[in-house]
């Protein structure tokens, strides 16, 4: 479904991502783990068209999307839930969700809202509330719901547990698993490596912009070096 080949991404003179390649197959949850500054968010921004690679390519559903604008990539079926949620703070919950449906026909918006509200009952309760007054967990649900309004085939999630209490973290990860069971492929970046690998089928370990390990998530959870570096073992 997603194939990233030999990308190199720079911030000025800083070489943030180095000769990196990986892929995600349809129906998978794939996690990228690594320390702060390893290049995880940069990779997701490159996949979704926010940043450009100097080399290589990003292919989605068999077509090269490396040069496409982000909104055109969304139209292809790839939605990015950014780090920090980035909801429209002055808009209501429902207005935020409707903003996520701009790639869809007007006739599909009601069905999209119904689907999101069924998955996130809290958002239904808060649908008229201004997004900036929501809790962190509610804003994360809203960011995910807004992405779902575009009916993505692949959802790219950047640090969905950031700043959340443990109970809410568990709830968000249950939602991620449910979305996957319902047919959405997931590419997940997450500082909480234990949680990320516990829901994923495969994982990639990043260090200073390069992949240093790639394996089944269960094997990475048992890997002594991974345990020591990222799992507190």
Structure description:
The model has no long low-confidence stretch (mean pLDDT 91). This protein has 10 helices and 10 strands. Helix 7 links the parallel strand 7 (154-158) and strand 8 (185-189). The strands form 2 sheets. It has a 6-stranded mixed sheet, sandwiched between helices. It has a 4-stranded antiparallel sheet with strand order 2-1-4-5, with helices on one face. The protein is of the alpha/beta class and 233 residues long. Helix 3 packs parallel to helix 6. It has a single domain (2-84, 136-230), classed as 3-Layer(aba) Sandwich (Rossmann fold), CATH 3.40.50.300.
Number of DSSP-assigned strands: 10
CATH topology: Rossmann fold
Low-confidence stretches: none
Number of domains: 1
Q: How many separate helices?
A: 10
- Which strand order spans the largest sheet, edge to edge or round the barrel? 6-7-8-3-9-10
Oligomer category: single chain
Order of helices and strands: EEEHEEHEHHHHEHEHEEHH
- Largest pleated sheet: 6 strands, mixed
Structural class of the secondary elements?
A: alpha/beta
Rg, Å, rounded: 17 Å
User: CATH superfamily membership, which one?
Assistant: P-loop containing nucleotide triphosphate hydrolases
Helix content: 25-40%
The average pLDDT value, as a whole number, equals 91
CATH class: Alpha Beta
Label the CATH architecture: 3-Layer(aba) Sandwich
Distance between the termini: 34 Å
Shape: globular
Portion in strands: 25-35%
């Amino acid at each position: 479904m997603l194939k990233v080949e030999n990308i190199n991404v720079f911030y000025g003179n800083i070489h943030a991502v180095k000769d990196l390649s990986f892929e995600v197959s349809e129906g998978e949850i794939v996690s990228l783990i690594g320390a702060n500054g390893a290049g995880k968010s940069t990779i997701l921004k490159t996949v979704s068209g926010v940043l450009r690679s100097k080399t290589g390519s990003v292919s989605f559903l068999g077509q090269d999307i490396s040069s496409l604008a982000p909104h055109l990539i969304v139209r292809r079926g790839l939605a990015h839930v950014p780090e920090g949620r980035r909801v429209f703070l002055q808009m209501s919950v429902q207005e935020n969700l409707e903003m996520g449906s701009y790639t869809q026909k007007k006739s599909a918006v009601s069905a999209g809202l119904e689907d999101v509200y069924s998955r996130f009952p809290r958002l239904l309760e808060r649908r008229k509330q201004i997004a900036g007054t929501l809790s962190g967990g509610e804003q994360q649900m809203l960011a995910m719901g807004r992405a779902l309004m575009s009916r993505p085939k692949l959802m790219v999630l950047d640090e969905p547990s950031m700043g959340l209490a443990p109970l809410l973290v568990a709830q968000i990860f249950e939602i991620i698993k449910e979305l996957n069971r319902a047919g959405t492929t997931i590419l997940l970046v997450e500082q909480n490596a234990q949680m990320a690998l516990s829901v994923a089928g495969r994982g990639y370990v990043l260090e200073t912009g390069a992949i240093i390990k790639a394996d089944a998530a269960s094997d990475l959870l048992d890997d002594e070096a991974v345990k020591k570096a990222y799992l507190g073992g």
